[in-house]
Amino acid sequence: MLDSFRDTFRLPDLKRRILFTLAALFVYRLGAHVPTPGVDAAALGKLFDQGTLLGFLDLFAGGALSRFSIFALGVTPYINSSIVMQLLAVVMPSLEKMQKEGEEGRKKIVQWTRYGTIAFALIQAVGMTGWLKGLGIYSGGVLDIILVSLTLTTGAVAVMWLGEIMSDHGIGNGISLLIFAGIVVRIPEAIVRTASLVRLGEMNVLVLLLAVVIMVAVVAGCVLLQEGQRRLPVQYAKRMIGNKMYGGQSSFIPLRVNTAGVIPIIFASSILLFPYTIAGLFQHGIARAIQQAMSPSSPIYMILYVLLIIFFSYFYTAVVFKPEDISTNMKKNGGFILGIRPGKPTTDYIEKVMGRITLGGSIALAVIAIVPTLMTGLMNINTFYFGGTAVIIVVGVALDTVHQIEGQLLMRHYEGIIKRRGGKGGSLLKL
């Protein structure tokens, strides 16, 4: 495995991409520590120490929100805009047609997504600034509020730009890597705080050991969920081309259990966090009721969270997985699934199997997202945030990045980082 990591720096192009990604992450972390002027940092810190939904919001911002830095909004506006555009593409035939037009159509959709990001960022920036002013943490006037709102909006656009150039010139999905960096950067501090409480006797060692065991089990479950697949056996008919016989071999179609990856988690979290931000614009009873209902520990939040994860699992799978294309390609190459006629019956069969797999995968994804939150609440562990959302994102992004590095290595005849061993039923990982 160490040899494989060493090989990644032997290839100039891959080395350049990795170094570019690290440099972009450094810029992102640097911006997360540049404070917005006019905010009472001490009062803001006390507010976040209360363990409300703000801590959950701050998790995705990588600590930028608790500092109210120029990157306080993080990637949330971009994700919200992406969700809206993907939903509109489903209900609006013109947008769906534009997606199929090729590069030009995709460029237009990307541009509209950017405009949507600016709109969402401006709304959230005004809402957050007005909410902080209502709490007495921010004491600026109208012009100051406008200045801070524009600063936060500009920061959100800069984060979007960083994510896009990381996707184009780096390794992995840029937006996902920014979320990943914001989560893992807090691990060292959490370890130090936990160790201090154990040393002072304020935390039970047995409880901590039990929590560690559950964490390992949850991470293992995330890896199995991300890597698990159902393999449909495909037989190719023999064909005579010229004087040579082609085909006749067996293959399979790998159907991933979790085709959508971490997208359902990110989308569901972003949608549930948006009402909380909007409620910050107002200070009457209804707004406070919404804020309480959107707390991660509330039953309403958990039920909505599970339902949205299942919905987006199906939605995103339908967007990226096209059974018709698979069936058409199989028919052109003389391939067929044993016992299933080529053409529409094959398409219907793949859709049916994929629907069952997606149901199981989405439920497992929702369970993994909820269980760690319940566990840390019951064990009263507050030195670090171990939520299923964070775990699934970290594991999913890490595996996706490793697979992309693997692909670059294998194209150049280097051995991959992860070795696979498996039979019919799926795959086993050997690190």
UniProtKB/TrEMBL annotation:
Any matching Pfam family: SecY
A Gene Ontology cellular-component term: plasma membrane
Keywords attached to this entry: Cell membrane, Membrane, Protein transport, Translocation, Transmembrane, Transmembrane helix, Transport
PROSITE patterns: SECY_1, SECY_2
Cellular localization per UniProt: Cell inner membrane; Cell membrane; Membrane
Ranges that cross the membrane: 65-91, 112-131, 137-162, 174-191, 203-225, 260-282, 302-321, 357-378, 384-402
Chief location of this protein within or outside the cell: membrane
Membrane topology: Multi-pass membrane protein
Listed InterPro entries: SecY, SecY/SEC61-alpha, SecY_CS, SecY_dom_sf
GO biological process: one example: intracellular protein transmembrane transport
Gene3D superfamilies xrefs: SecY subunit domain
Family: Belongs to the SecY/SEC61-alpha family.
Subunit field text: Component of the Sec protein translocase complex. Heterotrimer consisting of SecY, SecE and SecG subunits. The heterotrimers can form oligomers, although 1 heterotrimer is thought to be able to translocate proteins. Interacts with the ribosome. Interacts with SecDF, and other proteins may be involved. Interacts with SecA.
Function: The central subunit of the protein translocation channel SecYEG. Consists of two halves formed by TMs 1-5 and 6-10. These two domains form a lateral gate at the front which open onto the bilayer between TMs 2 and 7, and are clamped together by SecE at the back. The channel is closed by both a pore ring composed of hydrophobic SecY resides and a short helix (helix 2A) on the extracellular side of the membrane which forms a plug. The plug probably moves laterally to allow the channel to open. The ring and the pore may move independently.
HAMAP family: SecY (MF_01465)
NCBIfam families given in the database record: 3a0501s007
This protein's name: Protein translocase subunit SecY
Species: Synergistes jonesii
